[in-house]
């Protein structure tokens, strides 16, 4: 992870854009933290309890303030399976009820997959969600005079994915709603049409800085190019294919080359899969 300042006292912990590996402790995503005079707000907690010390070291290189809160934005492994490490050290775990529900649904399968990658580096990791999840879609938070909003604007990569909005600095921690520099992944549990609509709703915040779930932080225009435009393209093109009764294999083959998105890392690995999954989802809606 590389620490990057994105505003005064606001930092992104930028993970690699490669796949999960033993060496990266399965953290191939971005985390973040906010420094206040009453302590640190950590955004997401990594994939295991054993990655906790690495995150602590990154925070300690910037501030001596303790980590008081851990805010979970999503349900994928690297967003919350490190919660127990910080809870044992006194941090409060915060998440929306929507997010916690999805965490519970996928915890076992995530641990099985992580075991294959991490082996001994998964030891001691037990699922721990926020004990008092927030039963709302918007929650105003304040620590040390720093105002934050934990928001659900719609489902995206996972059902229940949330955002953390810092209105004073105009920084948005977008979680897996936004991918920059690398192509997003549409999975069976993703909601492609909702994801597109949620991105559109996010744009209304007009953030100056977007910290994506994956890739380097950027501005809203880059988020639109790398994520919003791709989501629009997937839905538009596949809906057109369905309107014309084009079979799935022909649709995927015809759209496999998309020059406007080929610069995104992992395009060759994921574009065909994304088209296939988008077709199946949109076909099922009809």
UniProtKB/TrEMBL annotation:
Transmembrane segments: none annotated. Residues 28-214 form the Metallo-beta-lactamase domain. Pfam families: Lactamase_B (PF00753). It comes from the Bacteria. One of its GO terms (biological process) is antibiotic catabolic process. InterPro entries: Metallo-B-lactamas, NDM-1-like, RibonucZ/Hydroxyglut_hydro. Belongs to the metallo-beta-lactamase superfamily. Class-B beta-lactamase family. PANTHER family: ACYL-COENZYME A THIOESTERASE MBLAC2 (PTHR42951:SF4), METALLO-BETA-LACTAMASE DOMAIN-CONTAINING (PTHR42951). This is MBL fold metallo-hydrolase.
